[in-house]
Amino acid sequence: MLAFVIFYPFAMAVYYALMRGKKSSEKENNIWSNVCIVSGAAELVAAVAVLASLIGGAPQKLLRVSFLTFDAGVSGGAGAVLGVVAAFAWFAVYLFSREYMKSDTSVIRYDFFNLLTLGATMGVFFAGDLFTLFFFFEIMSFTSFMWVAHRQTRGALYAAGTYLGISVAGGMAILMGLFIVYSQTGTLDLGSIEERCAALMQNGGSRQWLYIAACCMLAGFGAKAGAFPVHAWLPKAYTEAPAPATALLSAVLSKTGVWGIWIVTGKILGGETEWGAFVLVTGTVTMVYGGLRGVLSDNLKTTLAYSSMSQLGFIMVGIGMEGILKSLLSTAGIAVNQNLAFEGYKMAQQGMFLHMINHSTAKLTLFMLAGIVFMNAGSYELNRVRGFGRKKPFLLAMFALAAAGIGGVPLLNGYFSKTMLHESITLCSEYLAQNMTYASYLSGLVNGVEYLFLFSGGLTVAYMIKLCIALFAEKNEDAALQKEYDAKKNYAALFTKLAVIACALPIPVVGLLPLFVKREIFSLESLSGAAVSIGVGIVVYAVIVRLVAFNRKEGHYRDIFPKWLDMERYVYRAFVYRTIPFLLGIISRILDSFVDSIALLLKKTIYRERALPYELPEGNRITHSVGVGMENIRKIYYKIGKKDYEPKNYEHKLALKSTDFFESLRIIERSLSFGLFMFCVGLMLTMIYLLVVN
């Protein structure tokens, strides 16, 4: 079954490419759309079966195919859970794509690369070693590149170029990290690498090399996760890709990057406080920056893109807290309230993983709803789509549910996971306060992260309020356009609505789980954290959005983020297209001058100019000698016969004959007949050799 989960999408992609014609009728398009839906359902059933076998106590499933190793039970079955989430996301997106992509001119190419990306994603989550993970991670990067470039507009190709460039650079960084890890530990197997790394550091091994490897892999995986500062591809790629592809980019593919960061933190540097703090800082910056950009954006899809970046920052904060608390637990000689550290560690681990799932369901819902808006309004610009959701209760209910869930409103899934992450921070802070042995910077860092965590939760609430009010409460400034929006009743097909409902359903279901498994999540202290974030969000919306980002005179939203701070255009592209060529040009000029200097020195010393020897004007030494000899014989003959000598110029004639002869040989050498002749000669020599030997 594990082999089916991984390789079935690749087999279906090949079958689809071979059987699907270039031109199809609407009926055939619907048939092939149903084929994709059935394929997604089969993949989901297989992934659930693998997970169910693990939960049922089946032995750890391993699969080896050539140089690739797969393990269904990696990290306690976490990979299998994410595999189910990925399969569910693809199934839901196939339902949604039935309507969204039906009139697309390149739907065949889209479906083909969609299936390839599904298989590659499953390979990442079920990888049994780091090389297999890297192998499928790179396949996934190249196949998903076609999502971003799908529309083939100027903006799409620009965004796709950035996405591919950062993906390739990230892949090279990951590969470099793998080389270092293997050279230090002798293995890339995920089942044994943690013990090898821990033993290496305990025995005084090259700790700095593991840090270098981890930094390389963090850069590569962080690029896919949209972590600051390698996030430059994310907003434009999310905006330019078709809505179904954007939903998968946010809900699933970003999680492959987070999955890689989690593996690096837990299995390579799991007991290192400094590394956990570094990941924590990176996640905090990503969380805050994404939230601010989401508040300041005037585009529906771009706001959701930066929202994804911010929520991935929340997840990275959980990974950082998990790393710090794991290192605190492994520190010998400190035993004051170890239960606090252990409880915080479990909170961070479970909260981080749960928020990965919660973010996937919420963003699938939100990006699908954004796709519905685009199908009917033809734009993502907030000023253009204002008022579209008025008199559309289904759209309002689904959008409000997903927005409230990702905003951390109690009784919904986002509150559950964010509260667990917040609890891990507060427990760690309390533990550090009782153990003054640790450096003060760590306690100050954790306390600062707590404030930024609550503030970022408020930013999430603020931009979700902005989108809800713009879509469902405000009217469009164009009255005729608003009338057209209000008249739209059949704005989404049945399959599209079913896909949205399927993705939105887990939001309240998971949110109600604490009532049965963890009721203390609804304690007054936990609820106060959510109340602070909601309060901050209302204030940010009222002050920043309504008073600054909204132009009251002209009555429209505007993006007030300074254009000159665009890292993608003015940092990465400037560095790649200007700085690097400039520096390489300087280096090339220096090397060119150095080589010229050496050549000049050699010319003046070893290879200095000498007087040229006598050169024949034509022919060669043989034609010259023979020609002169024949001319002398002719002179003797005429002298004996007492005749007047008339020179024949034999040297010139022989030179011409010689030139014609050698030119004919060169022509023969270049001809097919000469090649066949030489082949026959070689064959004959081979036969003679065999006869002599035998």
Radius of gyration (Å): 35 Å
**Envelope shape:** elongated
Class based on secondary structure composition and strand pairing: mainly alpha
Note poorly predicted spans. none
The largest pleated sheet is described as:
2 strands, antiparallel
Helix content: over 70%
What is the β-strand count?
4
Which sequence of strands runs across the widest sheet?
Answer: 1-2
Report the average pLDDT across residues: 84
How many helical stretches?
Answer: 26
Euclidean distance between termini CA atoms: 58 Å
Strand content: under 5%
Order of helices and strands: HHEEHHHHHHHHHHHHHHHHHHHHEEHHHH
List the topology elements.
Layout: H1 2-19, H2 26-55, E1 62-65, E2 68-71, H3 78-100, H4 107-125, H5 130-148, H6 154-185, H7 193-202, H8 207-225, H9 234-240, H10 243-268, H11 273-296, H12 300-330, H13 338-377, H14 382-385, H15 393-407, H16 413-434, H17 440-473, H18 479-487, H19 494-504, H20 506-511, H21 514-517, H22 524-549, E3 550-551, E4 556-557, H23 567-604, H24 621-640, H25 650-670, H26 672-693
Antiparallel strand pairs: 1-2, 3-4
Offer a few descriptive terms.
two-stranded antiparallel ribbon, mainly alpha, 694 residues, 26 helices, 4 strands
What does this protein structure show overall?
This protein is mostly helical and 694 residues long. Among the domains are: 563-610; 621-693, no CATH class. It has 26 helices and four strands. The chain has helices at 2-19, 26-55, 78-100, 107-125, 130-148, 154-185, 193-202, 207-225, 234-240, 243-268, 273-296, 300-330, 338-377, 382-385, 393-407, 413-434, 440-473, 479-487, 494-504, 506-511, 514-517, 524-549, 567-604, 621-640, 650-670, 672-693, and strands at 62-65, 68-71, 550-551, 556-557. It has a two-stranded antiparallel sheet with strand order 1-2. It has a two-stranded antiparallel sheet with strand order 3-4. Helix 3 packs antiparallel against helix 19 and helix 8 runs antiparallel to helix 10. The chain is elongated and about 135 Å long.
